[in-house]
Write a structure and sequence with these properties.
By secondary structure, this protein is an alpha+beta fold. Helix content is 30%, strand content 22%. It is found in: Membrane.
């Protein structure tokens, strides 16, 4: 190398050695994952390539909760994915742990009704 020059090869080598960010995979969405008859689900799954959660209930039987692609959330596709289940209802959603299906979703209207009745009662006092 001439005096005062720079070594381009060593510059490129040192630049290639810099840490690279890891490749991004997954949507970052978390869903409950279980197959049971109780309706109580506590296992959580990190969705890898899926963008939604599903809660699929067999009529009079098992409930399945897991990650799913939103494009698969239709009767025809779900019938192919779950051929052993002939009659079902399902709900797809796209926020973290939205497929819980816990009783608190049914309690919310009851709380609102009780609040309204209490306010009417209070006005009569």
């Amino acid at each position: 190398l001439p005096t005062g020059g720079t070594d381009v090869t060593s510059y490129e080598d040192s630049r290639a050695a810099l840490p690279q960010p890891p490749p991004t995979t997954g949507s970052g969405l978390r869903c409950y994952k279980c197959q049971d008859y109780t309706g109580r689900c506590q296992d959580v799954q990190e969705c890898t390539y899926e963008d939604s959660c599903i809660s699929l209930s067999e009529r009079g039987g098992k409930t399945i909760r897991q990650c799913i692609r939103y494009t698969d959330c239709d009767n025809s596709r779900l019938s192919q994915m779950f051929p052993a289940i002939s009659a079902f209802t399902y709900r797809c959603c796209s926020s973290n742990l939205c497929n819980s299906g816990t009783a608190c979703t049914a309690v919310t209207p009851l709380v609102a009704l009780l609040g309204s009745l209490l306010s009417v009662w209070w006005c009569w006092m």
